[in-house]
Amino acid sequence: MKNNKLKIVLLLLMMIGTLAPLVAQHQIPGDFCITADELQLYNRLNQYRKDNGLSEIPLSKSLCYVAKLHVSDLQYNRPDTGNCNLHSWSAQGDWVECCYGTDVFNSTCMTSKPKEMTTYPGKGYEIAFWESVDARPSVVFDLWSSSPASRDLILNRGIWKEMTWKAFGVGMLEGYAVVWYGAEAEADEGVKICGSDKTAGRLIDKVKPGEAAAGTAGVRYHLIIASFTDETIAQQQVQQYKSRGFKNPSIIKSGDNFRVSLGSYATQEEAIKARKSLGEKYEKAWVMKN
Question: Would the pTM count as exceeding 0.90?
Answer without folding.
Answer: no
